[in-house]
Amino acid sequence: MAVDPNTPTTLYAGTEDYGLYKSSDGGNAWNAMTGLANNDVLVLLVDPQNPSTVYAGCDNLFTPEHGSPVL
Question: Does the global pTM surpass 0.70?
Fold first, then answer.
């Protein structure tokens, strides 16, 4: 998980097999982020200088069963 340093109610959660999710209400509701569906998101980092940029480390972006990412 990662928290936006400027807006602590904005949360990001990386999942195994289901990609990246974002909550804008402190975790009450979650929405899938496009581009990383069907990937194992192992680590997240919100850029402290530009919180709209989130870095996600994944382990299977280029496997044949998942194809290339669309970001």
Answer: yes
